[in-house]
Structures
1.
Amino acid sequence: MKTLRISLVSVLLAMGLSTVLSGKVNKHKPWIETSYHGVISENTDTVLLDPPLVALDKDAPVPFAGEICAFKIHGQDAPFQAVVLNKTSGIGLLQAKSPIDCELQKEYTFIIQAYDCGSGPSGSGWKKSHKAVVHIQVNDVNEFPPAFREPMYHAAVTEGKIYDSILQVEATDQDCSPQYSQICNYDIVTPDTPFAIDRNGNIRNTEKLSYDRQQQYKIMVTAFDCGQKRATESVLVRIDVKPVCKPGWQGWNKRVDYEPGTGSKQLFPKMHLETCDEPLSSVRATVELQTSHIGKGCDRETYSEKSLQKLCGASSGSTDLLPAPSASTNWTASLLTDSGRDSDLIFRFDGRQAAKIPDQVVPQNLTDQFTIATWMKHGPSPGLRAEKETLLCNSDKTEMNRHHYALYVHNCRLVFLLRRDFTQVDTFRPAEFHWKLDQICDKEWHYYVINVEFPVVTLYVDGVTYEPYLVTDDWPIHPSQIDVQLTVGACWQGGEVTKPRFTQYFRGSLSGLTIRPGKIESQKVISCLQACKEGLDINSLESLGKGIKFHFNPAQSILVMEGDDLENMNMALKKVAYINSRQFPTPGIRRLRISTSVQCFGEDTCILVPDIEAVVMVLQPSEPRITITGTERLTQPAADLSGLAGLPLFQDLHIISTVTKNDVPSHSRGSGLSTVTKNDAPSHSRAHRPGVLEEIIHNLDYCDVLVMGEELNPGQESLHLDRSSLLGKHLDATNSTSGISIYGVDSMSNYEQVVRQVRYHNWHAAELSERKFRLTCSELNGRYTSNEFNLEVSVLHRSGAESHVNHMAVQPQYLQAVHHPVMAHSQSSTHNSAIPSAATVVIVMCITALVVTVVLGIYRIHVAHQRSSDSADRTKGGEMDWDDSALTITVNPMENIEEPQAADNEASEEEEEEEEEDEEEDEQDDDITSAESDDSDEEEARVPRGPQENKRRNQLEWDTTTLPY
């Protein structure tokens, strides 16, 4: 049996061997796990599998059939490979073909199979295992820092609030794992800020913010991932602080500069109303221009009252009761004045000053028609019981205390008293007219005009008509022989008191108080007299928009606009402008105020819009320089002054006005020269001033011709101006012993024409040697004055040769070489050894007599020549006569010696013929010399004489100290 078993095993082995040999040996497939889980760290190639990669084969230990030769991976682009480490044990290794990047792919899943080595060395007949799933997870490495999504963050907050979150910043991380890709913390890098940030990036404020304290904050924020890796760059966060929404006007400037002469200028070109999103039904805005501090309430023409009346076409014949103090109007000299060059004369009454109007000035013929006009600024009366404050009063001068007519203020009421004289009808008549107006006590300037057409009395205040609210009747005044006294600032009480005195003093300011008897002024003239040259304006009325209503007050200082559309109102306010039509406006500020009321739907008032205040700054205008030019020295024969026509003083007068402009081209500045656009004047006089000298045209309001030295003697001399020269012009003139005043607002050319007609008469010109006059002109009531043009008139006295032979007038050029007494003296001194002293005296006397004779002959020839040229000069329209202002009267040193004087006269007659022949030959040369002398005299008139010139003139006279008597 044992032998049988051994033989059976042998048979089986032989059979198996034969089976292997025949290809039937590899009958089992390799075996692996059904699934694997692996982990690999990024940037490495080794995979840790669970369970490990091992393949088993039941054919083991049969060579080849029981061995594992390969692992194959099936999957699209799987970046892994499996390596057999030991064929017999079937252990394998899974690894990456290249370093794995977690950011590209975090996980991989693929199929793996194990292969045995087959049935033989050739590898044929191999078997593969079943498919196993491999899932590999890539472990992340913290290689990327956090980065913010935005380059900068911006938010706006309203002041005064605490916010839970103002804004949220956000950072990201490119790492793939939650640990390294998530942001775990944010931090504010900027120190000392009123902000905090949480781990989610929400920024909040830790205290209330103030717009006034700081309007913007800039903070830097950084981030950390969960691996505590910090962001490379911090991010900027800008937080704007907005003020709490307050309704009001925005986009306006507190100051607007106004350049004179530029017309109207927009005041609020960018202004709009902020309503904080409230639904509005209507908006009403009031724009007020406040100019009470300028002159008499605004920028008016500052000419005299009479000039303004002429300009406005007022009736003539008015009497100015408050003129500027002067020699002829001295009753206002004691009054307080509060005036500047930019306004008319203003008289300030403090309750202690008053003025009596002279009887010759008071209008005596007040009829049923007359006008009283004045500017007045008045405030409430002090004290509990206000007394009457009299502006104008006509009362009894003595014995009684009757008020014939008066204008006064009482308890902020204006009262006009008018008591008529007694007539045949002894009945009550209207006597007191009362007006109660706010303007009377508002401390502002107003223009009051009372037109009397008895029994109707009408009051105009700033051109607006007001009827009296109360009229009181009274008995007429019985006739008497008592004189009356007209006063301003108080009422005169001449009777019923122990001592006459003023009473009912006025407290306030007055200007331009006038009475015009016989006529009343029209409303057109009244409006012109009080017209303001500055005010508010609207540019482009047609583009205001629909639904916009607007209204100006008469002075155009208040503008009211109303509309139901906010956008249209904004556009309308942008068109509001300031305008000043004066050529030379008063510089300084003008205050602006805008008050606004807003209504909402269903509510009376929903929001309150605060008033805004701004200023218009009127810049200094280019000041004109008024220049008077002409001949400054006249030398005329006495006959011309005593003739019927008189002597025209200013025949070649010229008046020009220039301003200096600052807009100078660069080359002009470099050259330092100025130019004149008209009537070219010497540029060297202003070469040191920058700018361009430009002539301008404007009006003048007076020119005064003043007599220098003693006043005119009415008995023998006068200044005359033909009244016909004033016709067709807005000019008038007054004449006195001190000169002529031409006044009125008119052009410079008209003033030139009139001043050229001023003539000087002197009926005793033989007793006169010279007269001096001064001419000055003004614009705007003395605001701009001209230079003082001085004119000197020298009287030429002619006489025959037989009289006053020892007094001669010789032109300077004839005397320059005449120093014979000195020469004779010097010659005698040099030849003293040869000539005795007695002979020297005789020679000197002879030479002196000869010189006097020659000079006298020259003078006679010149007088004859002058007489022939006088008539020709008169035919040329009054050209200037021979100017001998520089002549020197020389005393004959032989005056006290009678016989030599007679001899001199005979010798001069004999030698005169010889000198005449010589003069005829040299006549042409003398004419040229005379012309040159005239030019030099004119130049002397322009240039003041210096010490050298005076010295030269003194040297031309005879030096009697060297004569050897």
Note: The CA atoms of residues 272 and 567 lie 8 Å apart.
2.
Amino acid sequence: MVSCTGWLLLLSGAAFCNAFHSLYPMYVGVNDEDPFMPKERDALDDCHLRYLRYGRDDLKPQTPLPPYEENREYSHVAAIGWTRSSGKIDWACMGTLIWDNFVLTSAHCTMDESNTAPDVVRLGEANPAHMQQRKISHIARHPDFAPQTERNDIALLQLDKRIIVNQTVAPGCMWLAPETIFPKLQSLVRSKVDANNRIQGIPVISSVESAQTNGRKCVSSTSGDGELLCIETGESEPTKCLDAPAGNPLQVRLLHNYKTSPFVVGIRAGSRSATSCKPAGAYTRIGSYATWITQVLAERNATAKPVDFIPAVCALRFAHLRPRVDELLMERFDEIQTLGLQVEWRHTEDFRYIVRIVWPAEAAQAARNDCAGTLVDQSTVLTLAECVAPTPEGHKPTEVLHTGRYENASLPIKSITMHPGYVRGSQANNIAVIKLAKPDGAVPACVWPFDDSMLIMRIDLAGVGASGLIGDIGDAIDDQGGVFPSHHLRAVDYLPWANCTDELTKFNRTLRGASDEQHVCFRNEQWLVPGSCGLLPGGPLQRYIGRAGSALKYVYALSLAGRSCGHGIPAVALLLRPHVPWLRSVIMEGAPGIRPQATSDSVIVINPDLQRSDECSNGDGTVGICVPHEMCLSTPERLRKGERVTLCSVGSVVCCPWGDIARNAAVNPVRKELESCETRSREFREQRLRGRESNSTEFDNFPHLAEIGWPQSNGRIQFNCIGYLITTNTIVTSARCAEAKSWKPTVARIGMLNSENPSNYLLQPIRRVTVHEEYDDNTGANNLALVQLTAHIKPTVFFFPGCLFSNETHVPARQYGVHYDGASLQLDRIFPMYDGDCRERQPIGETLLQGHMCFLRGRAEAELVRTTRCYTPGDIMVWTRLTEEQIDDAEYLVAIYNHGVCREVDDVLTATRISAYYEWIVNNIK
């Protein structure tokens, strides 16, 4: 793509930082890179037009983080040894550091064949330079340990000194729940290595990833009461494995903060003299001994309390020391470390499109208080039908709620429409539309109406969980963590429906009415720390999509059922696409400015590839030629009847059937000059691109902008406002600019703004100022004027006429506002509004007049800086039409600022639409 002249060059430095985590945006090939917006809404798939102002174009891949200098995977693993008379230490057992001076191991590891107790523990053996060794000061063996039966095979070793916690030595966590829900676990073993790499005879630790729980109790003549966990796996390679000693940990690594913490589930039970390193067999389930473990710690005066072993608390304690999950962290964008309330404010803003559904107190226990909804426009919320179905007494939800850490915002409900095909208890057609009483300012998620082929990849699933377990904390101690509920997104992978139903069956879960026609399944095999994420029924499954040059979030489905946001156990969601026709009929009915659906296939099509005199077709069997609309006698009637009309290019050129072309239509030389703008300026635009390649600043001036000047009593010229050069002798500006003083302007300065070389501009006397004869200063009606020069200028590469946008039915969705305060020039990204949206948001007493358009200034999602800079009379709105490479884009004047209140960046501003006055301009240029 080529440069878009000076407008984009000045804007390229803008950056918008945020703490929002989402997958990199996808670019799906939808042909709407430079879209046009009609006056009124006529399609459900218009989010990239309506909310383009929120689109993100600051998404850049993160620089890969440097690898760790140390191994963090096994910082909790301890080697347990016996010091022999020769001084050699026999490292015959393994254990797990669970506190800074306690190691958990098998009771079998508290004695050897000669009933000698171990006396030493070593930690950090995977990192030789950072190993720590401690004496064992006390051994607490389970009082009911039965060596012959492997019952109660568990013990705690107290160290004589506390270890120094760092990246290479840190306590692990314990899974103390009575159930083991993980189908796959890691069994840590010690592998054979080359003698030259041995550290005092200690082998290297490794894990066997394929260990699986078989769902049965281990069966033996003396056990089977749930205290043992039976593991099945394949054989390890004998050449790489030593005998698996007693006490080796069975663990799972749980995800939090883009890192993983080890949670020990079991300890290898049985004699340390096992004959095979195959980790299959019995493990002591430590969840069955939670009370005993905490009791021993209390008796031994440990600083640990039962609350310290809650999974979330344990995970956060040493989160800064755990290994990160690089592939997960790197698929996120814009990871900016920020602090304090700024993070919370941005986080709350990011998730305002997810709302909680609120019921009246009278609904009591019958209310679904666990449900969420998803804003898909600023007046519409999608949710599950089951979430808003009336109670037996007829109670319905009354409002939706934005929830934040410090404040909540209530949005009253206007209406609720459930899908007519929904039946209670069934998941088919389980969808509903909530209309709000008034628009909300949140950035909505767009509805994805196309096919679901892109779902065979990763997607974000929205959930709610403890805030402290969510963000990337790096390697610094997180002293701002918390456990208050917070919305966030989790990356999950598409799971084929057949696989999904099989997985759900394992967890005794079935969903009546669910099918692959209306539903979709996702899962992430990485399990989460409990409390990290809970499913939000009615919450979105989404992905950022690149459309119209920016990334917007699109929702494909609504969460229906699952656990831990699809991590470990699959999550099921209701697809939106099968319900798009119904959604359109409900969402768009009665919306402000919506055009009624015509009985015919009425549509106005813009074909930018067609130019004047090209042969064309309207798509309804008529063949004609592209001509100016005033030459086509049938155009007004076709528009009135709602028939299809094709607009050629972006001007007032239409595809006209051959028989409807006006004969002997007069050719106005002014019209001809205006309509040939791109052709006339091509040479200069080519030169500017080549010139900028060699001298980037010399050609950064704005060649179409003219400053309007008034003589002062001191003999100087004061330039108060600006206009736009449209022919070699005419500048268009606002009437307010032209009448800014009681006397007329006398001179125009063309091409000066943003010029590095003062010799590259032109001063030209003004001959005539023509203000629209029906201009009303009170209302801003017909706020337009023409400034004509005493002579035609000779265009150069530094100053030449720009183009006029003459399409009366559409405007470009992406424009730039040029603000001039008499001294400096500043640019804003601006975005037009539907006329209906404008009327709804205008101040009381104000009316949208014929020939006006409303616009909003750009505010990228979660942008922190909110400008309140306003526009002044004569400020312009321009659009750069993308042309071929090796040439600057053609620039069009779309509108001139009229009026508005500029207290906030979300205030609606009004401009004079140039296309509405195209004929007036043509007829008044002399």
Note: The radius of gyration is 36 Å.
